[in-house]
Amino acid sequence: MPCVRKLRLATNPDMSAPDPIACELLPWDTEFFGCRIARVRGDTLTPQKAAQVDSWSRGNRIHGLYFLSCSNDSATIRTAEQHGFQLVDVRLTFERALGGESEPVRASRSAGTRIRTSQPADVPALQAVARAAHRDTRFFGDAHFSPERAEDLYSTWITLESQGRAATVFVATVPPDQAVGYISCHLDQDRREGRIGLVGVDAAVRGRGIGQSLVYAALDWFRNQGVLVATVVTQGKNRAAQRLYQRCGFLTRDLQFWYHKWYPN
To answer: Going by DSSP bridges, is the β-strand pair 86-97/114-117 parallel, antiparallel, or unpaired?
Structure first.
């Protein structure tokens, strides 16, 4: 059964001192999806830890549970499957080292397309793109989330990115300055690492090099911020995104598995 929207967070005295090796409540996801959602801490799972996870989740009235697993531990994978976790996504992390020279900018094949930083007036157009651009993700692949609420998630996500959660957002526009794509950029100054957040292009203009132009704009911006390494995450089923990042010089850094587990209400 899909989560019910607008469930208020309940007060649970046990939440003040959760088992440090078990799980953590995710307040934003809980509020957004309207049911109590948590995440397993760590990327490995043993039968003993799985039992602690179940005990913690039942004691704290958790409905949905996320687990991001390493991919090279067969015992973890076997334990997850034996304890009711469902594989919902393969998470691929790509990285690219950045040198001192700017990218050889490759213009989009769409006449008049240009890349610029986002403006407040772009948000409605970006929301419309976001509602359709991320259907390969785990939120669309899990029937416990309605497609409409998954669309709302990415519409909200790009709105927050544009309103300051990202360090900057670039948009691709077509005449007369209509936003048809976006890429959000995050910075970790201490590690001198840049992270690409959301990337989306309107289906009507895909295949014209717009995604590649957005990625190159992000890489140049990262370089100007003193970033040494750029990373981006995509889904195992999203082959188009994988090919895009490979064309832009990214190599695979890591592969992980997203599992979800649901408890009765």
So the answer is: unpaired
Predicted confidence at residue 9, as pLDDT, reads 38
Structure confidence at residue 220 (pLDDT)? 95
**Residue 227 structure tokens:** 């970033």
118, 248: one domain? yes
Q: What is the pLDDT of residue 12?
A: 42
Q: Which residues in the chain show pLDDT less than 50?
A: 5-18, 107
Give pLDDT, residue 101.
64
Q: Which residues contact 44 (CB under 8 A, 6 or more apart)?
A: 69, 70, 73, 75, 76
262 belongs to a structural domain:
no
Given 23, 57, 84, the domain boundary residue is 84
Cα separation, 105 vs 214, whole angstroms: 10
β-bridge pairing 229-235 and 193-201: parallel
Q: Which domain holds residue 134?
A: 95-254
Q: Is 0.85 surpassed by the pTM of this model?
A: yes
How far is it, in rounded angstroms, from Cα 179 to Cα 33? 28
What span, in angstroms and rounded, lies between the C-alpha atoms of 141 and 181?
23
Specify the pairing of strand 86-97 against strand 64-70. unpaired
pLDDT, position 113: 87
Q: Which stretches within 170-238 are classed as H helix?
A: 210-224
Q: Which two tokens stand for residue 142?
A: 């899990």
Q: Are 212 and 219 in contact (CB under 8 A)?
A: no
CATH number for the domain spanning 200: value is 3.40.630.30
